What we know:
alpha/beta, two-stranded antiparallel ribbon
Amino acid sequence: MNQPLITVITVAFNALEALKETAQSTWMQDYPNLEYIIVDGASKDGTKEWLEKIESQRGNEVKGQRSNVATGQQGNEAMSCPVRWISEPDKGIYDAMNKGAAMAKGEYCIFMNAGDTFVDEHVVSKMFVEAKEEADVVYGDIMKNGQVKGSLSPRNCHKMFYCHQAVFTRTSCLREIPFDIKHRYSADFKQAKQLFLAGKCFQYINMPVANFDTNGVSNTQRSKGLWDNVKVVCEVDSFKDKCRFLPHLLFPWIMCKLRGK
């Protein structure tokens, strides 16, 4: 594939230090056709002021000068791609992700939550050397607690077959099938099922894309996430598939409830 414009989207709320880590990881990518969108939920921790400082620094950059925008000091790292941002109240993480997709100019988007980072500076370049023109969804693996967590082959099942931090989705698909914000924990699961059932073209590339932040809500509130998956299956799947998938969700949900997770 040629080098299409890629939009990296980070949503954040009162997570300034984590946001800085994700932003720096994005700015270090060597892919030449990248834009960065930050969607802040009206944080009160200085995030908006930091974003305004970035905007000011970018406007005042002298050609050839490089500035470390993550710290606000002169350094060797550069903000090497266009950055756009908003800071306003939202209806949760998936509403903010929809806002980012609506703002995107790229052909593909990847969602990197505040605290998530790319495994190295070559990730996007390597992914789009191998990506096929017809692919609507290009995805890889993640690093979780220092270990590669492999994705599954494209399928309709009871769980995600990839993490959204490891997937580049065609922007037109994100607008055609946006995240359903009534699912606080599993809107990405529902969207993945809908994309698959709609016949979109998936391509798996065998490489880790992102270091996954395990402090996300779906990991810390496991029983609620599983129950939201149950509701997604009930909404999306046929009767036959409900019979296949629900037992795989209900048993672990009961166990998580008993363990207080």
